[in-house]
Amino acid sequence: MEKREELYAGKAKSVYRTDDPNLFVLEFRDDTSAFDGQKVEQLNRKGRVNNQFNAFIMEKLAAAGIPTHFEGLLSPHESLVKKLDMIPVECVVRNISAGSLCRRLGVEEGLELTPPTYELFLKNDALHDPMVNEAISISLGWATADELEQMKVLTYKVNDVLKTLFDQAGMLLVDYKLEFGRADGTIVLGDEFSPDGCRIWDKDTRTKMDKDRFRQGLGDVIEAYEEVGHRLGMQFN
């Protein structure tokens, strides 16, 4: 599949056209940022690790009947994906209290949340991804009520699959974000699932194995990502 002009360059990924108008190339780069771009570094192997991590997870979800945009790996740092009309609302699941939930509500970190919480955020860097609700999303035309319901149902299905997968590998899937888009009238999981967009802790020690290692200057960021992958059964090229 021939890669053509760059359509979009985000903080850590780039999207390119291909010779098929319905397919894009998603390139994972080594760029790493936090705190709205105030902390920026290049982390060797990050693009390759996240690309292959995402491929593994997307294949697991597809096998569980969850529609995704992932079509296949093109190279260690590139994937082929379906073109989606992206919905600008992120779905965030929290299985354990951490991060912004604790800051907003004064909640202790590490509390099991039963059932898991489900929140919506507008994907907008300039506004720092503010929390929104279904009514606002519908009124402002970001998504229909039916689309939001499909997103919620799919998000909980993803959580059922991945929470169990991580637990069996000796890890806690603390929280994460998902993004969805439209393809031929169907709601499809898009973007990525990697340690960049979720919190993962060792089940016994509560050691952080995700991007919080970068945010908090804990070191060995990519080594931790690879450890998560190896526990799940991944092999990185």
Question: Short description, anyone?
Answer:
By secondary structure, this protein is α+β, with helices and mostly antiparallel strands.
Summarize the structure in words.
With 237 residues, this protein is an alpha+beta fold. The chain has two domains: 3-82, 2-Layer Sandwich (Phosphorylase Kinase, domain 1); 85-220, D-amino Acid Aminotransferase, Chain A, domain 1. 30% of the residues lie in helices and 35% in strands. It contains six helices and 15 strands. It has helices at 46-63, 99-105, 134-139, 145-168, 212-215, 221-232; strands at residues 3-9, 13-18, 23-28, 31-34, 39-42, 70-75, 78-82, 85-86, 89-96, 112-122, 131-132, 171-178, 180-183, 186-189, 198-202. The strands form four sheets. The protein has a five-stranded antiparallel β-sheet. It has a five-stranded antiparallel β-sheet with strand order 11-10-9-12-15. α1 (46-63) packs parallel to α6 (221-232). The protein is globular. The model has no long low-confidence stretch (mean pLDDT 96).
In this structure, how is the largest beta sheet organized? Answer: 5 strands, antiparallel
- Rounded average pLDDT: 96
Determine the N-to-C terminus distance. 20 Å
Question: Which residues form runs of ≥5 with pLDDT under 50?
Answer: none
Q: Strands of the biggest beta sheet: in what spatial order?
A: 1-2-3-7-6
Counted by DSSP, the helix tally is: 6
Q: Give the amount of beta strand, in percent.
A: 25-35%
Question: How many separate structural domains?
Answer: 2
Count of DSSP strands: 15
Enter the CATH topology name of the largest domain: D-amino Acid Aminotransferase, Chain A, domain 1
Helix content: 25-40%
**CATH architecture descriptor name of the largest domain:** 2-Layer Sandwich
CA-atom Rg in angstroms: 17 Å
H and E string = EEEEEHEEEEHEEHHEEEEHH
What structural class should be given to the helix and strand makeup?
Answer: alpha+beta
The CATH class designation of the largest domain is Alpha Beta
Q: Please identify which CATH superfamily of the largest domain we are dealing with.
A: ATP-grasp fold, B domain
